[in-house]
Amino acid sequence: MPQEDRLKGWRLPGKPPWYLWAAVGLLVLGSIFLSLGHMLEPKSRSQAPRSPDQGEGQNQESELFTFARALETELQTILEQVEGAGKVKVSVSLSSTPLKQYATNTRATRRSTEEKDKSGVSRVTTETNEDGQLVLARTSTVQGEEPVVVRESKPQIQGVIVVAEGGNDPLVRSRLTEAVQTLWGLAPHQVQVLPMRK
């Protein structure tokens, strides 16, 4: 059969029906509106929900910030009592977050199996399984239960800057430096005392 005869039965319609044009138009308009909706959506709503790890990280940062501010207030109160120091501002830099050790209920199981082969040699296989579960205590907060903390280490102090009105006097500067070193057991290079701008 010649190729021309095969193509005679197959023809493109002259004009598609109106409902095909309407369906294509609706699909195009719908995709445009969806794209615009995603582009114009506020950033706060388009962000993915926070994972529990992110929330915990932010909680640790705020806890670290609160701890540093408390240390600064305590140190400022002490250093303003030093003769000649005058008004004092303190900034404390911490190098790590506090580490917490939580209470756990631990259950250990031990199973031994003795096997003998044909030659009479015995072999003992010991299998140990440990299962730990956090100990939770009821609290009055919204969460209801929180893990029980057994031990908490305080964050390490990385450095302290003291700005004092009497910071121009070498004797006052020396006293303030020694006071901070003695109070927190810091090395001399971790404490900087500067004169306050008039």
Descriptive notes:
This protein has 198 residues and is an alpha+beta fold. The protein has helices at residues 3-8, 18-40, 43-46, 52-79, 170-184, and strands at 88-94, 99-102, 104-116, 122-134, 136-138, 145-147, 149-153, 157-164, 191-195. The strands form 4 sheets. It has a 3-stranded mixed β-sheet with strand order 1-8-9. Strands 2-7 form a two-stranded antiparallel sheet. A two-stranded antiparallel ribbon has the order 3-4. A hairpin with a 6-residue loop joins β5 (136-138) and β6. The chain is flat and about 95 Å long. The termini are far apart. Mean pLDDT is 79; it is low at 44-55.
Task: List its traits.
3-stranded mixed β-sheet; flat; single chain; two-stranded antiparallel sheet; alpha+beta; 198 residues
N-to-C order of helices and strands: HHHHEEEEEEEEHE
Helix count, per DSSP? 5
Uncertain stretches of 5 or more adjacent residues = 44-55
Structural class: alpha+beta
Identify the overall geometry. flat
What portion of the residues fall into strands of 2 or more residues? 25-35%
- Strand order in the sheet with the most strands: 1-8-9
| Assembly annotation | single chain
Mean pLDDT across residues: 79
| Helix content range | 25-40%
Q: How many runs of DSSP E, i.e. beta strands?
A: 9
Radius of gyration: 36 Å
Largest sheet: 3 strands, mixed
Question: What gap, in angstroms, lies between the N and C termini?
Answer: 105 Å
